[in-house]
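In full, the data.
>
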Amino acid sequence: MSATPTFLQKILTRKKEEVSERSLHTPVSVLEKQATTASPPRGFTQAMVNSLAHKQPAVIAEAKKAKEAGATRYCMGAAWRSPKQRDMESVVAMVEGVKALGMETCMTLGMLSDDDIAKLSHAGLDYYNHNVDTSEAYYSKVITTRTYADRLDTLARVREAGMKVCSGGIV
């Protein structure tokens, strides 16, 4: 095992700490009763709290499962117009965590600022996905939250930062 704990090792350590802390405040007999009457586990991903910071371990765990099943690239996405600055630390941590598994990374987050692009590039993001959705002439009839030019601008700036681009569309 390396001297620096992996992301999954950090998760396990924190869970052990939580159990220890809880046992200090709740008698063991109560904990045992709760364990026998608790509903069955819902799965790691479903059990995570809905805040983005708490999703990091679930994302890394899912990427690890994908790698074990033969995947070499893991794509993560959020249905945002553009990421909020408060979310970028967690997004970057997800990229770094997946990269640490030895996988290529891909993200789709909507439009990006220059700062967002720099952070993602520094984190090692390999691919950025930004679907074009339809032709420029029909775009405003399908998408109202951004323009066709906004999409192309984001793709160009991502490419200039050295990341590869993948994009889909409706033909």
